[in-house]
Amino acid sequence: MVSKEQLYHIGVKAIIRNPQNKILVIKRVDRDSWDLPGGRIQEDENVYDALRREVKEETGLVQLENITARGLFLTKIKIPLKNHSAGLLFYYHTCLIIKEQSVILSPEHNDFLWVEIEKAKTLHSDDSIFFSEQNIALLG
Predict the structure, then answer these.
(1) Predicted pLDDT of residue 132
(2) Backbone phi and psi for residue 78, each to the nearest 5 degrees, phi listed first
(3) Quick one: which of 36, 32, 52 has its CA closest to 115?
(4) Higher confidence at residue 7 or residue 103?
(5) So what's the pLDDT on residue 26?
(6) Strand (E) or helix (H) holding 10
(7) What is the mean pLDDT of the chain?
(8) What is the maximum span of the chain, computed from C-alpha positions, in angstroms?
(9) CB atoms within 10 A of CB 131
(10) Within 13 A of 23's CA, how many CA atoms are on the CB side?
């Protein structure tokens, strides 16, 4: 029997805390669910550069401090390729913003909230791809 190996793309997600210890969540235009900033790693990009780039693109935040890897999680997403599909793994990180910064959303997003940790844990839903029971434990 020949086993088929699954191909995976890797992305990054940021659990960003502000000076008031609240977590940033964002809402995508194409989904009615909350998410954490992040996206896929590009070719020749390391994990930390990808995290900084994605956070800047999606939120306008540029000064991230104390970036700490927290865990790698498999999503249910299948990325279509030529003759097959790839799964998607997200590498979650916690980080802080020390100074107040204005959130400037990308065109992909239409809302954001800074929420208490306990409130963030209640924002997941069954249709939320990235902000799920599997990764809520990382919030603390």
Answers:
(1) 54
(2) -120, 125
(3) 36
(4) 103
(5) 94
(6) strand 8-17
(7) 86
(8) 57
(9) 21
(10) 23
3-state secondary structure 49-116: HHHHHHHHHHHCCCCCEEEEEEEEEEEEEEEECCCCEEEEEEEEEEEECCCCCCCCCCCCEEEEEEEC
8 A C-beta contact, residue 95 and residue 101 = no
Place of tokens 């910064």: 101
Q: Distance (Å, rounded) from C-alpha 74 to C-alpha 42? A: 18
The set of residues, in sequence order, having a beta carbon less than 8 Å from that of 80 and lying 6+ positions away, is none
The closest of 94, 117, 124, 106 to 14, measured between CA atoms, is 94
- Residue count of the chain, please give it: 140
CATH number assigned to the domain with residue range 8-139, chosen from the 4 options 3.90.1570.10, 1.20.1540.10, 3.90.79.10, 3.40.50.150:
3.90.79.10
Query: Pick from 116, 117, 121, 15: which is nearest to 64 by CA?
Result: 15
The residue to which tokens 């930390």 are assigned: 48
Per residue in 68-89, pLDDT (tens digit) is: 999 888 888 888 889 889 888 9
Per the DSSP assignment, residues forming a β-bridge with 72 are 91
